[in-house]
Predict the structure.
Amino acid sequence: MEENFIPYHREDPTADEMVERSQNFYNKLDKRRSVRVFDSKPVPKAVIENIIMAAGTAPSGAHKQPWTFCVLSNGELKSKIREAAEAEEYENYHGRMSEEWMNDLKQFGTDWRKPFIEIAPWIIVVFRKTYDLNGDQKMKNYYVQESVGIACGMLITAIHNAGLVTLTHTPSPMNFLTKILNRPVNEKPFLLLPVGYAAADASVPDLQRKSLEDIAVFYE
């Protein structure tokens, strides 16, 4: 065994067990929906910590782990972020977005107002580290966009697995998040996710996901 390597303890499920596991996991994830109406009911911090740690297991270029998860429950900060996000979204909905984009959004019933930023008990703002800093020295990171994207997918999955809901929010431009959260120059905002329980009266669009035949090509 090479130096600095440790044994990998593999599982050996049967074919039937793998089919059952994968089917059950798909069935659970197929219930995941993006929810825009939240309950303010508190969520234990330990749950959020576990969710973040799960996201942190994501693979990354050269194992640089080029992400920072900023986790907010502070009401004042959430209000500042909502105000800034709505200012950008107002501009988006009143001229920045193309007519085609606006038409594609109609089925969701969204607008520039983002009350969920204040209502959800937790906000996670994901930052991507374009490079690391060691004092004044810049340390290169690799495949940053891809690595952080994978971590966010695992984060969303962990949120759903915990019995909570979220919504991927990307107010554009997002530079205000760097300023409000006082992040260093090597970090760029990537994604904002409110996390909590769905409101009792929450509803979601009646959408259908693409079939396996629509999203996969098998070469056997």
User: Anything to note?
Assistant: The two ends are 34 Å apart (CA to CA).
